[in-house]
Amino acid sequence: EVGLLLADAMSARSSRRPASRPAQGRGNAERESATKQHDPAARVAKACDGATATEAGKAKGKVKGKGRSTSGQKQKTKAKVAEKTAVKSAKRAKSGSSGSSASSSHIDPAVQFTFEVGERVLCFHGPIIYDAVILKREMRPAPDDVPWVATACHYRVHYVGWKKSQDGWVLYTRVLKDNAEGRQMQQRINAATHEMVSSTKSSRAKKSASSGGGGERQLDEPPAVQKERVHCKQPEVRIPLSDTLKRYLIEDWENVTRQSKVLTVPVSPNVHEILDMYIATVKKQPFKPLLAEFIAGIKTYFNACLSTILLYRQEIPQHTAVSMEEADMCRVYGGRHLLRLLVKMPSLLIHTTIDRSRMSVLVSAFHDLAKFLDKHSQELLPSTYIQQSQEYMKRAS
């Protein structure tokens, strides 16, 4: 019986062992995990494993998000590219326009054409301004009144309402823009010319009457279509200038057109004062009886021609501002602009109806005035230029 009891006890003990071993294993695992929690190396390894898993999860999320937002990002990229292209185009257009305005601000009408073929313009024919159309344009040898260049712009024009036989080549200085300002100048110059011609005729008529009818032969003013024939009958008019005065003209041209400078106004002495000084020097010249008429004619021509053929484009804004305060330009401008008038006078006088003998007296008076300016050039032709701002030059262009 004792042996049987021992056998049963052993069998029961052996049957209970498999159930107890897992519990012992769980205890060991718990002890191992607790040990690892307290072990620094184990904590570092666990943290690294957790970080790796986290990064892998983030990367997986990014891949999924990228896949979902691919179409939206493409649309945003296209919009940004289109916006950048538009900005670049605007910058290029702005730089191109600024470059063209900068280049146009330096256009010299003496050597660069400013009128197109077929353009309607206003053109001088003698001292009178008529409507005309540009037929051709060429660079031709510069005349004496443009001493700073070898060749200058010339235009072949057709006068509206005239025969084709009256077409001819003219220098750029005799062509004006057909605009409101040009029309105003046309009215002023034509009126001043007719007034001067009328006064000349009346003075000759009085002289003829006082001499008993044996005075000089008078030339009737021909119609406009016959102006060219009258011009062909007129003698060649020349007002010689010294090298000193020519250097002043070249210096004036370079300062205004190349260096963006203008003369300070009002100038002292002005045209009125210079002419008064000149009158005091006239003694026994043959033109002394006509001196008062000669001086009055110079002042009339100066006021009428200043803004059209005596000013450079860069001086127009200054003249516009000054003319609002003073109507008589002879009290504003001085010897340098008077010298410009002397250069232009031959092309104006040759188309007048003045007879040969009177023309020779008139030319000698202009020659004497030129010698007076040459003799007193340092006093009468001051070099008082001022630099203009970019805003001013934009308005001038």
Commentary on this structure:
The chain has helices at residues 2-38, 40-104, 180-210, 227-233, 243-258, 271-281, 291-310, 316-323, 335-349, 356-375, 377-380, 390-396; strands at 120-125, 128-141, 151-159, 168-171, 175-177, 261-263, 385-387. A five-stranded antiparallel beta sheet has the order 4-3-2-1-5. Mean pLDDT is 75; it is low at 19-26, 93-105 and 213-222. It is of the alpha+beta class. The chain starts with a helix and ends with a helix. A hairpin with an 8-residue loop joins strand 3 and strand 4.
Given helix and strand content, the structural type is: alpha+beta
* Number of DSSP helical runs: 12
Roughly how many Å is the radius of gyration? 48 Å
Q: What is the percentage of strand-forming residues? A: 5-15%
Strand order of the largest sheet: 4-3-2-1-5
User: How many β-strands, per DSSP?
Assistant: 7
Mean pLDDT: 75
Shape, principal axes of CA atoms: elongated
Tell me the distance between the termini.
Answer: 137 Å
Low-confidence stretches: 19-26, 93-105, 213-222
The proportion of residues forming helix, as a percent range, comes to: 55-70%
- The SSE order reads HHEEEEEHHHEHHHHHHEH
Biggest sheet overview: 5 strands, antiparallel
